[in-house]
Write a structure and sequence with these properties.
With 178 residues, this protein is α+β, with helices and mostly antiparallel strands. 33% of the residues lie in helices and 14% in strands. A hairpin with a 2-residue loop joins strand 3 (49-52) and strand 4 (55-58). The chain starts with a strand and ends in a 12-residue tail after the last helix. Bound molecules: FE2/S2 (inorganic) cluster (FES) (2 copies).
Length: 178
Amino acid sequence: MNRVRLKVNGQEHEIEVESCTLLVHAIREDVGLTGTHVGCLTGDCGACTVLVDGASVKSCSVFAVSADGAEITTIEGLAGDEGLHPVQQAFWDEFAFQCGYCLPGMLLTTCELLDRDQDPDDAAIDQAINGNLCRCTGYASIRSAVRRAATRMAAGDPDALPESQRSESPSAEPPPSA
Ligand code: FES
Ligand code: FES
């Protein structure tokens, strides 16, 4: 067994893992955060995407031991006391998911994209999310959500819609994260 330290969503965790334990399994089973989904386990679907030191990483493609000392952000780390992260809110407002299986990975990939490109065009969006498969929604609404999030974040208004509109929108309940 190997002792591994991970800082997940700002909290330190020290776990014992086998050398062959995948990061996605360590996050779900040892850290106990099940919002990161397991899909293909072959690096194709992107459902397991998390941020590792700010970079989007398919956590089924990384051994937990190789993430020792890393800072990891999972879907559980996006929303704050003030509510949904603007990227979450934009996906909600644009109806950019259905079953939600792809959603945690899609959101974290979007966060990484908007961190390095505050005004991505469609080509940049497509390139960023081309490793994240969605079987339900269609990518047009996902593109719209990414653009909406970019606009809001650029305007320095992370709180999405004004209160009056928020109460009329379906945003009273958060999107599924697990
Ligand atoms: S579960 Fe990791 S890419 Fe599909
Ligand atoms: S919403 Fe179902 S896979 Fe994307």
